[in-house]
Write a structure and sequence with these properties.
Blueprint: E1 3-7, E2 10-13, E3 18-25, E4 33-39, E5 46-52, E6 57-60, E7 68-73, E8 78-83, E9 92-97, E10 111-116
Parallel strand pairs: 2-10
Antiparallel strand pairs: 1-3, 3-8, 4-5, 4-9, 5-6, 7-8, 9-10
Length: 117
Amino acid sequence: QVQLVESGGGLVQAGGSLRLSCAGSGSSFSSYAMAWFRQAPGKERKFVASIRWTGDETIYADSVKGRFTISGDNAKNTVYLQMNNLSPEDTAVYYCNAPFPSTPLPWGQGTQVTVSS
């Protein structure tokens, strides 16, 4: 079964940028789409962005539209999240996984993003 490994997080000042990476090993990603989610302290995990492999269709949460860009390569089992103009509200642990209606993959450890004001 695929194992997901997220990386690229860190501490950044407000207005800064980070690029997150997600690599899958052991098996193939979802053949339908992949997505990024995030979980802030004390809050539920929420959808951030997704990319559908057929046609490269992307969907974003309203809170990140215009600032975040999802990309990836299904054949290489990789997906990325370019995050620009970060704000403290973006502070969270970021995870990649297959979005609905795909069956979720086992969750990885995530990567911590901390944005200071």
